[in-house]
């Protein structure tokens, strides 16, 4: 029996909410390993780590901005991007913005006592902002799905 577009969208919205938590955990654990290890930016391994972070960050931002489901029909994507989801996404981005601002203030204060490189500053701010936006969006989507 073929699944209707609304059934597909409902199934995918549940998966999306669960996957956002998983992706946020993976993203944050990668960053923890990045900052806990010594990285040589002139080596190819150092360049690979930075490139992987940039690509993953861009994909996660694109997924947050569009809701994902890029390979689904326009009808399914429209059903996945309903008014409630758009509001959850806006709240996620707003929380990510505030997290970025507060992180920048924190790094500014830390830099008064211990120098922080510009590259590390950008890395920390973007990582925190993306993670907070993802986790906020995922939490709101899960609550909406649970409440029915």
List keywords for this structure.
transmembrane helix, mainly alpha, 83% helix, single chain, transmembrane, membrane
Q: Topology of this protein?
A:
Layout: H1 5-36, H2 44-66, H3 74-80, H4 83-113, H5 118-147
Question: In words, what does this structure look like?
Answer:
The longest helix has 32 residues, at 5-36. This protein has helices at residues 5-36, 44-66, 74-80, 83-113, 118-147. It has 148 residues and is mainly alpha-helical. It is built from 5 helices and no strands. The chain has one domain.
Task: Produce a short descriptive summary.
The protein has one domain.
Shape: elongated
Number of helices: 5
Overall number of domains: 1
Average pLDDT for all residues: 87
Rg, please?
Answer: 18 Å
Please report the distance between the alpha carbons of the first and last residues. Answer: 25 Å
- Amount of helix: over 70%
Largest sheet: none
Keywords: Membrane, Transmembrane, Transmembrane helix
Transmembrane segments: 20-38, 50-71, 92-110, 122-140
């Amino acid at each position: 029996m073929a699944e209707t577009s609304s059934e597909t969208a409902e199934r995918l919205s549940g998966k999306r909410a669960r996957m956002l938590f998983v992706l946020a955990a993976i993203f944050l654990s990668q960053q923890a390993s990045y900052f806990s290890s010594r990285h040589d930016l002139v080596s190819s391994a150092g360049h690979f780590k930075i490139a992987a972070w940039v690509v993953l960050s861009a994909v996660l931002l694109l997924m947050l901005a569009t809701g994902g489901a890029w390979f689904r029909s326009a009808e399914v994507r429209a059903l996945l991007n309903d008014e409630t989801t758009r509001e959850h996404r806006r709240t996620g981005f707003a929380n990510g913005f505030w997290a970025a601002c507060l992180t920048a203030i924190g790094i500014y204060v830390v830099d008064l006592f211990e120098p922080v490189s510009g590259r590390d500053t950008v890395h920390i701010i973007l990582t925190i902002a993306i993670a907070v936006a993802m986790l906020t969006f995922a939490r709101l989507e899960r609550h909406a799905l649970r409440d029915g």
